Amino acid sequence: MKVISWNCNGAFRKKFHLIEEMLDVDLMVIQECEDPAQSTKIYKEWAGEFCWQGRNKNKGIGIFSRSSFKLKKLDWNNNNLESFLPCRVNDSINLLAVWTKQANSPNFPYIGQLWKYIQLHKEKMKASPFLLVGDLNSNSRWHTWDCWWNHSDVVRELEEIDIHSLYHQYFNEVQGNESRPTLYHLHQFDKPYHVDYAFSSSTIFIKDENYINVGKADKWLAFSDHMPLIFNISD
């Protein structure tokens, strides 16, 4: 199964063709996209099999199948945390699409939202195979000294239930020292960061058999300040 995760920076109804032209994928996890059910006819027809979650129709998370994979949205309580979309893929893999936000939280913004979500649903995540994909808006470089739910804590919580970052496994890089940026903030080359991730159960990502890569800025920066994360897993 070949998967792409991409924060499209909005207006996905005008950009979905880029994936068809540049990449051959089975499953798409798209952040900042519109709800196809409330958008243009051509976008709705293209969307086909999809799940979507958002606070308004113009910006949310979408999961789209380009193959014969069936998608079923899961009823996992989000407890007003933002933003999470759990979905069952082909009745075999639980996929959690993520786009963390500040969420008007003074104490648990961004990665703190994911930390809280993990506490709610850790038992469900233990059920292998499991996949967590999306824009976390986070990196271990941004730790603050008095925060006990930081990026490294989230990574540790996931590793304790055998869920690991595919990028870091594949490239043998450590958290916070990534050589391939997934974000050029405000489209500026002098502001590169790694904030987009894919985590999976070890049962569906075998380093010698599967792969992961990051899209190149010369191809994608004109459309979003985020680069797509592309990987394949055993389905």
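the 2nd protein, sequnce then structure:
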Amino acid sequence: MSVTAGTTLVIKSPEFLDNEFISSKYTCDGVNVNPEISIDEIPKNTKSLAIILDDPDAPNGSFCHWIMWNITPKNSIKENSAPGIQGRNSFGENKYDGPCPPSGKHHYHFKVYALNTKLNLLVSTDKNELEKAMKEHIIARGELVGLYKR
């Protein structure tokens, strides 16, 4: 199954605008909790949501800060919450680890996926394994980009 025209999720946050700076509260320099994420235009046949937060500007390639799946379809992921199963991020932890760039301005991509199923994955699942598992089940997707510089 592939994403077709008109199947874009609208991803926003009350904490920052698309392509604007994220408050240090949500980073390694602050409280390091996830910001609230709002999700609109969820297709009616969505069985679950998944989220990936990664940084393609990392020195050694894309760095994953957070992955979660089997999120009940709803219009928001609240601040400092984990309403699904959290997999292993690039820090080797099963939790949100906020932006923490070693230098310069980095782009943090909050990617949300609407899936036509729930996924049966281990908590040791990483970003690549999640992407592979959900590939044929994505019915809509959306993205919000936040910036951060230390």
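Residues 36 and 78 are 5 Å apart (CA to CA). The helical segments are 127-134.
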